[in-house]
Amino acid sequence: MKEIKAFIHRNRIPDVIHALKSAGFSNLSIVDVKGTLNALDNKEQDYSVALGTAIITEMKLELVCGEQNVDDAIRLIREHGRTGQQDAGWIYVIEIDKAIRIEEMAEGQSDP
User: Fold this and answer.
1) Nearest to residue 90, comparing CAs of 34, 19, 37?
2) What is the rounded average pLDDT for all residues in the chain?
3) Which SS3 state, helix, strand or coil, does residue 23 take?
4) Most buried of 1, 42, 56, 94, CB within 10 angstroms?
5) Rounded CA gap, 74 and 30, in Å?
6) Using an 8 Å Cβ cutoff, are 10 and 59 in contact?
7) Measuring CA to CA, how many Å separate 55 from each of 35, 63, 76, 98, 100?
8) What does the pLDDT look like over 19-50, one tens digit per residue?
9) What pTM, to 2 d.p., does this model score?
Protein backbone atom coordinates (compact mmCIF):
# COMPACT_ATOMS: atom_id res chain seq x y z
CA MET A 1 0.00 0.00 0.00
CA LYS A 2 1.02 3.59 -0.62
CA GLU A 3 0.13 6.89 0.97
CA ILE A 4 -0.11 9.87 -1.32
CA LYS A 5 0.25 13.36 0.13
CA ALA A 6 -0.37 16.33 -2.12
CA PHE A 7 -0.02 20.01 -1.32
CA ILE A 8 -2.45 21.91 -3.54
CA HIS A 9 -3.74 25.45 -3.92
CA ARG A 10 -7.01 25.95 -2.07
CA ASN A 11 -8.97 26.90 -5.19
CA ARG A 12 -8.01 23.64 -6.99
CA ILE A 13 -8.91 21.16 -4.24
CA PRO A 14 -12.65 20.79 -5.12
CA ASP A 15 -11.82 19.65 -8.66
CA VAL A 16 -9.13 17.27 -7.41
CA ILE A 17 -11.46 15.70 -4.83
CA HIS A 18 -14.29 15.34 -7.35
CA ALA A 19 -11.98 13.66 -9.89
CA LEU A 20 -10.53 11.24 -7.32
CA LYS A 21 -13.95 10.29 -5.91
CA SER A 22 -15.36 9.82 -9.43
CA ALA A 23 -12.46 7.44 -10.16
CA GLY A 24 -13.29 5.35 -7.07
CA PHE A 25 -10.77 6.71 -4.59
CA SER A 26 -12.20 7.03 -1.10
CA ASN A 27 -11.08 7.81 2.44
CA LEU A 28 -9.58 11.14 1.44
CA SER A 29 -8.33 13.49 4.15
CA ILE A 30 -8.04 17.20 3.51
CA VAL A 31 -6.36 19.62 5.91
CA ASP A 32 -5.70 23.38 5.79
CA VAL A 33 -1.97 23.99 6.17
CA LYS A 34 0.27 27.04 5.95
CA GLY A 35 2.84 26.72 3.20
CA THR A 36 5.16 28.53 0.86
CA LEU A 37 3.69 27.76 -2.57
CA ASN A 38 3.70 30.81 -4.82
CA ALA A 39 0.50 32.77 -4.31
CA LEU A 40 -1.86 32.99 -7.27
CA ASP A 41 -2.74 36.58 -6.32
CA ASN A 42 -2.23 39.09 -3.51
CA LYS A 43 -5.43 38.02 -1.73
CA GLU A 44 -4.06 34.50 -1.27
CA GLN A 45 -0.80 35.57 0.36
CA ASP A 46 -0.17 36.53 4.00
CA TYR A 47 2.99 37.35 5.86
CA SER A 48 3.83 35.28 8.92
CA VAL A 49 5.70 37.31 11.50
CA ALA A 50 6.41 34.12 13.45
CA LEU A 51 7.96 32.43 10.40
CA GLY A 52 9.40 35.59 8.88
CA THR A 53 8.19 34.79 5.38
CA ALA A 54 5.24 35.03 3.01
CA ILE A 55 2.80 32.12 3.30
CA ILE A 56 -0.48 30.95 1.86
CA THR A 57 -3.14 28.59 3.12
CA GLU A 58 -2.67 25.42 1.10
CA MET A 59 -4.62 22.19 1.23
CA LYS A 60 -2.92 18.94 2.16
CA LEU A 61 -4.68 15.97 0.59
CA GLU A 62 -3.91 12.50 1.91
CA LEU A 63 -5.10 9.20 0.52
CA VAL A 64 -4.09 5.56 0.77
CA CYS A 65 -4.32 3.20 -2.18
CA GLY A 66 -2.88 0.05 -3.62
CA GLU A 67 0.35 0.29 -5.57
CA GLN A 68 -1.54 -0.46 -8.79
CA ASN A 69 -3.60 2.74 -8.34
CA VAL A 70 -0.79 5.19 -7.54
CA ASP A 71 -0.17 6.34 -11.12
CA ASP A 72 -3.89 7.00 -11.69
CA ALA A 73 -4.16 9.03 -8.47
CA ILE A 74 -1.06 11.07 -9.36
CA ARG A 75 -2.38 11.72 -12.87
CA LEU A 76 -5.72 12.95 -11.53
CA ILE A 77 -4.11 15.18 -8.90
CA ARG A 78 -1.74 16.71 -11.46
CA GLU A 79 -4.44 17.16 -14.09
CA HIS A 80 -6.98 18.79 -11.78
CA GLY A 81 -4.54 20.59 -9.48
CA ARG A 82 -2.94 22.72 -12.20
CA THR A 83 -2.92 26.48 -11.70
CA GLY A 84 -0.98 27.64 -14.74
CA GLN A 85 2.08 28.29 -12.59
CA GLN A 86 5.40 26.50 -12.83
CA ASP A 87 5.08 25.40 -9.16
CA ALA A 88 1.42 24.55 -8.49
CA GLY A 89 2.12 22.12 -5.63
CA TRP A 90 3.82 18.87 -4.70
CA ILE A 91 2.90 15.19 -4.55
CA TYR A 92 4.69 12.70 -2.31
CA VAL A 93 4.31 8.92 -2.36
CA ILE A 94 5.17 7.00 0.80
CA GLU A 95 5.34 3.25 1.42
CA ILE A 96 2.98 1.94 4.11
CA ASP A 97 4.46 -0.95 6.05
CA LYS A 98 1.32 -1.89 7.91
CA ALA A 99 -2.37 -0.96 7.98
CA ILE A 100 -4.53 -1.94 10.95
CA ARG A 101 -8.30 -1.53 10.97
CA ILE A 102 -9.78 0.10 14.07
CA GLU A 103 -12.65 -2.06 15.18
CA GLU A 104 -14.48 -3.15 18.25
CA MET A 105 -12.77 -6.12 19.90
CA ALA A 106 -14.85 -9.03 21.15
CA GLU A 107 -14.76 -9.75 24.87
CA GLY A 108 -11.70 -11.81 25.71
CA GLN A 109 -9.98 -10.90 22.43
CA SER A 110 -6.52 -9.36 22.70
CA ASP A 111 -4.47 -7.20 20.37
CA PRO A 112 -2.20 -9.05 17.92
Assistant:
1) 37
2) 87
3) coil
4) 56
5) 16
6) yes
7) 5, 24, 26, 34, 36
8) 999 999 988 999 998 877 777 777 777 777 77
9) 0.81
